[in-house]
Amino acid sequence: MMAEFLYQSLVDWFQGQVEKGLLSAGDKMPSLRKISKEQGLSLNTVIHGYDLLVKEGWIEARTKSGYYVCHRGHLRTAVMAAAEAGKELTKNQSLSFEKQHRYNKALQCSAFNLLGQELFSVQLNNMKASHPQGEPSVRAALTALLADLSIQTNPEQLFLANRATSLLAQCIQTLTKPEGKVLLITPCDYRLSQTILALGRTPICLTAGDHGADIDSVENLLKAGDIELLILPSQFAFPVGQELTNLNLRRWYALIETYSVPTIEWDMSSFLPNRPHNTMTLKSLDQAGHILYLGSVEGIHDTASLAWLVMGRYEKRLSGPLKALDLCPGVDQQIALLPLFTQMHKKAFSALARVIWTNAEKVKHQLESLTDGKLSVVLNKGGHSLWIHCNEPISQAMWQTYEAGHLNTLVPGTLLFTDSDADHWFAFNVSMTEQLTDTLQWLQQAWGPITSETTTKADSKTAQDPATQDGDEPVYNPMLDLIQHDFG
User: Fold this and answer.
1) Domain segments of the chain: what residues?
2) How far apart are CA 14 and CA 148, in angstroms?
3) How would you classify the pairing of strands 66-69 and 59-62?
C-alpha cells in the first residue's frame, strides 16, 4: 500500500504540473534522478511511477532520449454567453418521468466505473433513522467536510436526506407560494427546473456565461419584487461562471444580502475540483445565513447516497416540515458512509478527482478525432462532465436514436438551459466508462469518421500506451540509461 501511494503521488505531481502549465504536450520529462532527488523518492519508485504514466497514456518513452509528455487533445475552447433577460418556463416544458429517468444517471458520478471498486461496503439491517435530522456523528463529520470548503456551520444546522431532490422540493414548498416565481441560473441540473414546475411554481431562467450571470440583469429581476427564491447551480458542476473571481462572488452575495432573497446553492461536486487549489463556494462568503446550501454524494455506491441541507436563517421554517417528512436514510446507511466523511474522505475524493481529470483528457483526445473543427469544449473547474459545443445542432431525431440505444452518457443541452442555441450543446459524463465506445459510435453517426483509436475501450492499454504503437522501435528501458549514463 505504501509503494502504491508513492507511485500515485508521482502521478499527482505530474497532473499538477500539467494543470499549472509547467508541462505540456511534447515537453521532455525531468530525468529519473532529478525527480528522485526533488520528490525524495527512490529511483525504483520513480521508474514505476513513470511506467504508470506510460500505461495511462500521459507520457511516452523514446529510445535513448527519455520520457516525453504525450500529445493530448486540443479541442477549441467553447464560450457560453450570458443572457440579458430571463425566460419563463411553462408547464408544457415539463419532461416526462421516463425522459427524466433516462438521463438521471448521466447527472451522477459513477465512482465504481472510474475506480474499479467500491469506496466502502454497506450492510443495511436497520432501515430506520434514530434521529429525524440525521445521526449526530454523521452530521458532525459533514460539518468538518464542509469546513474544508470554507463553509462554516454546525451539526444543528444540517439536515440529512436520502435524495437531494427531496430537500429541494421541501425548500421550494416552504419558501414560495403556489405559482410563485423562482429565479433559476442556467445551465443547470434539469432536476431543478423540473421540480419547480412539478410543484406549481414558475421558473424564470437566466443563462450565465463563463464569467457568471449578468449581475445587472439579476438585479433588475429582483427589483421587480416578485422573485420569491433564487437557485444557483455550483460553478464546479456546470459551465456557469468558470472564470468567476472572488470579487464576482462577493458582488453576488452583496446582491443577495441587499434584497434578502432566499437563495439555494445546489452543489454536487465542489469536493471534486480538477485543480490542485481549494475551490470556493458562494456559501463560503455567507455569514448571515441567507444561503441554503444543498449538497449530496451521488453515484458513489449502488445503494447508498446522502444529501444534506445547511438551513441557515430558515431553520425555524424548515426544520418542522422536514422532520415530519422523515427523509433521513437508515442508521446503517448513515454509519456506513461515516468513514467517507472522516478518515478517508480526502483520499477518496482526491482519487475520484484524479481519475475524472485523467479520463476527461482521454475523452477530449478522442473527441478531437471527430471531423476537425466541429466540436469545442468548456474548460470546467471540476465535476465529472465535459461541456461540448457543436457547430451544427443535434436534431431531435438523432437524440431519439441515442435514447433507443439505451445510452445515458450524454445530456442534451435543451434539457439544461433555454437559449436558442441549446441544441448545439451537450454534457458528456466522463465517469460512464462502460458506455464510451457506444457513445463515440453515436457521435460518429452525427459528425463523420472517427479514427480506429476512438472505437477502442477507454481502458485499453494498447490504445493508451504510445510505446506499443511505434512498430519496430524498441520500448525505452530506463534502467539502461541509469547504467550507461546519467541524464540528471
Assistant:
1) 2-72+471-484, 87-346, 347-468
2) 24
3) antiparallel
- Name 295's bridge partners: 267, 308
| Residues forming beta bridges with residue 69, ordered by sequence position | 59
Residues 6+ apart with CB under 8 A from 421: 393
Helix (H) or strand (E) holding 425: strand 425-429
Topology, domain 347-468: Aspartate Aminotransferase, domain 1 (3.90.1150)
Q: Please state whether beta strands 202-207 and 87-88 pair in parallel, antiparallel, or not at all (unpaired).
A: antiparallel
**For 356-403, how does the pLDDT look when each residue is reduced to its tens digit (9 = 90+)?**
877 787 788 778 776 667 888 887 677 788 899 998 898 888 899 899
Which pLDDT score, from 0 to 100, does residue 466 have?
36
How far apart, in whole angstroms, are the C-alpha atoms of residue 368 and residue 366? 5
Residues 6+ apart with CB under 8 A from 317: 174, 175
Q: Using a CB cutoff of 8 Å and minimum separation of 24, what contacts does 127-131 make?
A: 127/330, 127/332, 127/333, 128/330, 128/331, 129/326, 129/328, 129/329, 129/330, 129/331, 129/334, 130/331, 131/328
At 284-321, the pLDDT tens digits run: 899 889 999 999 988 777 667 889 999 999 999 999 99
Enter the C-alpha cell of residue 487: 541524464
φ/ψ bin of 207: left (φ > 0), alpha (ψ from -120 to 50), beta (otherwise) = beta
Residue that is written with C-alpha cell 468558470 in the block: 242
For 27, 62, 460, the CA distances from 475, given in Å and listed in that order, are 19, 7, 18
How far is residue 77's CA from residue 370's CA, in Å, rounded to a whole number? Answer: 16
d(CA 207, CA 166): 25
pTM of the full predicted structure? 0.79
CA–CA distance, 222 with 58 (Å, rounded to integer):
48
Sign of CA dihedral 45, 47, 52, 53: positive
Cell triple for 126: 436497520
Q: Distance (Å, rounded) from C-alpha 158 to C-alpha 453?
A: 48
Measured CA angle at 160 (ends 155, 163), to 5 deg: 155
**CA dist., res. 191 & res. 95, Å (int):** 10
CATH 3.10.450.50 fits 2-72+471-484, yes or no: no
Q: Which of 437, 392, 349, 378 is nearest to 115 (CA)?
A: 349
The secondary structure element, H or E, covering residue 310 is strand 306-310
* Residue whose C-alpha cell is 475551490: 279
- Choose which CATH entry (1.10.10.10, 3.80.10.10, 3.30.465.60, 3.40.640.10) describes domain 87-346: 3.40.640.10
Closest among 164, 137, 144, 145 to 292, alpha carbons compared? 164
